[in-house]
Amino acid sequence: MERNADAVISTSKLCKSYTNGEVPQHVIKNMDIQIYYKDFTVFMGASGSGKSTLLHILSGMDRASMGEVYFKDTNFSKYSEKQLAQFRKKNCGFVFQQVCLIGSMSLMDNVLVSGLLVEKNKKQVAERGRKLFAEVGLTEKEWGKYPSQISGGQMGRAGIVRALINNPEIVFADEPTGALDSTSGKAVLDLLTGFNRKGQTTIMVTHDLKSALRGNRILYLRDGRINGECSLGAYQGENEPGFEERKEKLLHFLEEMGW
Ligand SMILES: Nc1ncnc2c1ncn2[C@@H]1O[C@H](COP(=O)(O)OP(=O)(O)OP(=O)(O)O)[C@@H](O)[C@H]1O
């Protein structure tokens, strides 16, 4: 396959089917897509259109049924489970709707567990963890607490630290604000936007317009195919000039897509 040098991930004739009983369900159909370095790519689409399935395949959490998935020049679609796990640990950070921290460990220890999967030097991982906690606005007093002692918003922030601890090439976020109130959701989006501005390639699945507005490239899925694409440019903030036009453009695109 001819690879686009600007693409950090690319797929060729990607297919994913599930067999529920006798009948196979084709969830991703012959998809060729590129995800570009430093982009904030957003997948939107109706429920069941294949967004999460696609995210899982691009991040090596799930396997394609057919076709190829490349990370830079490496085709990882044929990796063994062990190789895939290694690939994920090293290159992918995950932000989920439910953060799912280990209840018997402090926030910092939760982050260390992820960090030490890749980097053996505990001092270095802890140092990076402290820096990231500071960047997401959690103090030492807060990151010393157990998950049951913190708010949902703080949990969301800790989830971002955990996603970034291994300095991943790509952050994958699946409905990251889905379990949060609007203030905490905005804080998580601000963090994702901030890290993306500093060069963090980000891919997010969302149903939410406010979240989607953070992306610079919106891909709309329908029935396992990319039905359309909208380019928005970099997000500047909702009080900045151009925000209303950005919103109008996205709404118009989504209307065309039948959202
Ligand atoms: N592990 C699985 N086994 C069988 N079918 C599955 C599995 N995972 C997903 N599906 C089916 O694949 C289709 C696409 O699911 P997927 O979760 O990717 O959609 P989605 O666009 O992310 O939906 P939503 O917005 O509701 O989360 C759905 O019909 C779903 O039921």
Automatic annotation (TrEMBL):
Single GO molecular function: ATP hydrolysis activity
Entry-linked PANTHER family: ALPHA-D-RIBOSE 1-METHYLPHOSPHONATE 5-TRIPHOSPHATE SYNTHASE SUBUNIT PHNL, LIPOPROTEIN-RELEASING SYSTEM ATP-BINDING PROTEIN LOLD
Transmembrane segments: none
Organism: Parablautia muri
Name of the protein in its database record: ABC transporter ATP-binding protein
Domain ABC transporter: 9-248
Cited CDD domains: ABC_MJ0796_LolCDE_FtsE
Family: Belongs to the ABC transporter superfamily.
One Pfam family, short name: ABC_tran
InterPro entries found in the cross-reference section: AAA+_ATPase (IPR003593), ABC_transporter-like_ATP-bd (IPR003439), MacB-like_ATP-bd (IPR017911), P-loop_NTPase (IPR027417)
Keyword annotations: ATP-binding, Nucleotide-binding, Transport
Keyword Zinc-finger included in the entry's annotation: no
